[in-house]
Design brief:
With 298 residues, this protein is α+β, with helices and mostly antiparallel strands. It is built from nine helices and twelve strands. It comes from Bariatricus massiliensis.
Length: 298
């Protein structure tokens, strides 16, 4: 426990620059006396940490101090490498190089134990290139010039300050400040159809929590599927939402937003889904299916 706290203190000082014993005591939920003992222990181990009294005093590390790899436990080294593996698996050359260097530094083989790919089928190179551009712009605070398609299909040119990438509900989003609208906006990754990273740099800012993805209003949806659709049903619904009937048919009861996405999703099952509830969804699906028929009939 103490060794873990010592490392966290060093990390905290690297991040904050200068602090006080009471602040560290509050941060790590120990006494001020314990913090001073930890500072002594760090100093004795060769870490250039100093404590000065007086009005302008405080606890700080020597300028330009670089964290010694010896401070990391074997478990912490493996966790760092595993985190980098998840980024490298998404196709990042930069993260792959860092992974190789740290693996050599830690003297631990970087055996990949899982694979992550957030790109869409058939769009791996394009999606990953876009992801890398957005990630770089967020990290280096470069403004972006984008062409975006909103939910109504309207294209618009935007100049934005990218603040953070967010993965939520199977979708990537970009949290940003739109300089054209002079307000914070949330952009869906797949709807950014053109992207240019500019040389202009903006000052970092926090994205308000209230601007997060709004929770949609959900309704109880009950669906019936033939057993032939089991592969999709188990892929796309939680096991707790699925009831298997004696006939091997599947009843799915789920809370979902009653919107255009749901209609399109249910239509993707073709004639292999029957809506049990709500009744209003019957008419909506029938109407859309009829439109599809009229458009495509010969």
């Amino acid at each position: 426990m103490k060794e873990s706290r010592l490392f966290k203190i060093v990390y905290y000082l690297l991040d904050k620059g200068r602090t006080t014993a009471p602040e560290l005591a509050q941060e790590f939920e120990v006494s001020v006396r314990t913090i001073y003992r930890d500072i002594d222990a760090l100093s004795e181990s060769g870490i250039p940490v100093y404590a000065e009294t007086g009005r302008n005093g405080g606890i700080y590390l020597l300028d330009n101090y670089v964290l010694d790899k010896a401070l990391l436990s074997d478990k912490e080294k493996l966790e760092i490498l595993s985190s980098l593996q998840s980024l490298s698996a998404a196709g990042s050359l930069y993260d792959a190089e860092v992974l190789t260097k740290l693996s050599a530094l830690f003297k631990i083989p970087s055996e990949s134990w899982f694979e992550v790919d957030f790109s869409r089928w058939g769009s791996k190179a394009k999606d990953n290139a876009k992801f890398e551009s957005l990630k770089s712009a967020v990290i280096h605070h470069n403004t972006l010039a984008i062409v975006y398609v909103n939910a109504r299909g309207i294209k618009s040119k935007r100049n934005i300050n990218p603040l953070k990438l967010m993965y939520k509900s199977k979708e990537w989003y970009l949290k940003a400040y739109c300089t054209d609208k002079e307000d914070f906006r949330l952009f869906k990754f797949n709807r950014i159809i053109e992207l240019e990273v500019t040389d202009n740099v903006f000052l970092p800012m926090d994205y308000p929590d209230s601007q997060d993805v709004p929770a949609p209003s959900c309704h109880k949806i009950v669906l019936r599927f033939p057993k032939e659709m089991s592969y999709r049903v188990y892929d796309e619904f939680d096991a707790e939402e699925i009831q298997v009937l004696p006939s091997d048919e599947l009843i799915v009861t789920s809370e979902m937003p009653l919107d255009s996405w749901l209609v399109g999703y249910l239509l993707s099952f073709g004639a292999q889904v029957q809506v049990m509830e709500p009744a209003c969804l019957h008419e909506i699906l029938a109407e859309q299916a009829m439109k599809i028929y009229e458009i495509n009939r010969v």
